[in-house]
Specification:
By secondary structure, this protein is mainly alpha-helical. It has helices at 13-24, 26-32, 34-41, 45-69, 76-84, 86-123, 129-146, 148-176, 198-213, 229-259, 264-269, 273-318, 336-357, 359-392, 397-419, 430-451. The longest helix has 46 residues, at 273-318. It is globular. The relative contact order is 0.21.
Length: 469
């Protein structure tokens, strides 16, 4: 099969929203990220989510403005290529595919760890984590080969389960009230709730808040498979940008009071505060339901990140930056070779680290790396829209100039807190791992320019339908 065309006109705005929301993994975020935010900002972790929300809405505007003019399966990669040029697009694609691979690898690995640990603690069944990780990757590869619609509808089923369970727990807490008595208040929405950590702690908590939204851009990679992408893609992205941050603010507020607003130091040191809260309010049966929802969320965001990564691989293959056989599709018009390649890479990348450090630590280390990559991506995409709109003569001072500049500044602050001062231990090494990956991409770029210069003419163009010519 030599065709390189993806199935088209099979995806509507609802599925775009599903991919973006599932890509964030809302229940998994509540389970995996809140404790780190609590360590840095205490009860003000809710305030940190509030500060990031405008940045996510601005991103939706940026994605929509790009998508109206350049619908593409390459998403952010294609848009940055048009905005900044082919050299930058090459490096950006390198950055993006690395981030998606790491995201999927971490997700599948921690999924295996959660299932293994749950079976051991609840049922005394000792089954190695890697069996569940391999099963999850095999499932996602199979669903991807069957077609994007089936894969997304499967993600929708998991998404509905996870959100309903976590939202029900949050509403139960808010209706019942805190276990230790007292009422609800506005303290979590105030910077003073961060205590002695102050704005520095809030900035670090914002880093994890941004990490919690990684995946919201994944619906943009369906640009070539959406009916009427100028409207449908934009609508789906806006829905995700409103629903996901709102979910986090509501649920995190409930979690703070559910655990105890005066126990935030203990909250930050609890490896599983969500499970603690679930057991407190719903008992063992409720805890089991919550754990199942979390597992569904982890699988859903891993699946969405995996699908987005395969489409970036497909884009780079179609433009011959990577081997062109990655862009060949099956009779179902799915990029099977990119899907299988992505599956192999996620196993090869995630499994060795998990064997050394444990499957749970993989998320901590990889999550930090993912946040750096996407903070850089979101800053460059916001600023890139300003540059692109000026070039095509459609620049608007408010919709593009003010909003995109503000969006870039919102993401620059947590990026600054990530790298300065460098955090202790292995986390202080991770920024240099990111830099090394970018340097490797720059070396690959120089090789391509010198040995295969004809490839550079195709960067960011073959899968982007630029209405402006």
């Amino acid at each position: 099969m030599t065709s390189t065309d993806l199935a088209s006109k099979g995806v509507n705005w609802r599925l775009v929203a599903v991919m973006s929301i599932a890509g964030c993994g809302p229940a998994a975020v509540i389970a995996l990220n809140l404790q780190f935010m609590g360590q840095f900002a205490g009860a003000a972790l809710v305030f940190a989510f509030m500060l990031v929300w405008p940045g996510i809405l601005i991103l939706a505007n940026t994605f929509t403005e790009f998508a109206k003019r350049i619908p593409s399966s390459g998403g952010l990669y294609t848009w940055n290529s048009h905005a900044w040029g082919r050299d930058f697009g090459f490096i950006f694609g390198w950055n993006l595919i690395g981030a998606y691979i790491v995201l999927a690898s971490a997700g599948f690995t921690v999924f295996g760890g959660w299932v293994s640990e749950w079976l051991l603690t609840q049922y005394q069944l000792s089954i190695p984590w890697w069996i569940f990780t391999a099963a999850a990757v095999s499932y996602v590869v199979a669903m991807g080969c069957l077609g994007i619609q089936r894969s997304l509808y499967a993600a929708l089923t998991l998404l509905g389960l996870q959100c309903a369970v976590i939202l029900a727990l949050a509403l139960y807490i808010l209706i019942r009230g805190p276990m230790e008595g007292g009422g609800l208040g506005i303290e979590p929405f105030l910077p003073s709730a961060a205590g002695a950590a102050g704005w520095a702690g809030i900035g670090l908590a914002m880093t994890y808040a941004v990490l919690s939204h990684v995946g919201v851009e994944e619906g943009a990679t369906l640009g070539k498979e959406v009916r009427d992408p100028k409207r449908q893609l934009a609508r789906g992205l806006w829905v995700a940008a409103i629903v996901v941050p709102g979910f986090y603010v509501l649920v995190s507020y409930a979690m703070v009071y559910g655990y105890g607003i005066d126990r935030m130091e203990e909250f930050g040191n609890d490896d599983a505060p969500l499970q603690t809260i679930a057991a407190m309010y719903w008992g063992d049966v409720g805890l089991t339901i919550v754990v199942i929802a979390i597992l569904g969320s982890i699988l859903a965001f891993s699946q969405a990140g995996f699908l987005a990564g395969t489409r970036v691989l497909y884009t780079l293959g179609n433009e011959r930056v990577l081997p062109q056989w990655l862009a060949q599709v099956s009779p179902r018009n799915t990029p099977n070779r990119s899907i299988i390649t992505m599956g192999v890479i996620t196993i090869v990348l995630g499994a060795p680290l998990a064997f050394v450090a444990g499957p749970f630590n993989v998320w901590g280390y990889f999550g930090f790396l993912i946040s750096i990559a996407f903070l850089v991506s979101y800053v460059s995409t916001n600023l890139g829209l300003i540059r692109y709109m000026r070039r095509i003569g459609e620049y608007h001072w408010l919709r593009h100039g003010v909003l995109c500049t503000l969006g870039a500044l919102i993401f620059l602050y947590p990026l600054y807190r990530v790298v300065w001062p460098l955090p202790p231990g292995i986390y202080g090494v991770i920024p240099f791992v990111y830099i090394a990956w970018i340097v490797l991409g720059a070396m690959f770029l120089m090789y391509t320019r010198n040995v295969r210069p004809e490839i550079m003419d195709a960067i960011g163009t073959t899968l982007g339908d630029d209405d402006q010519g």
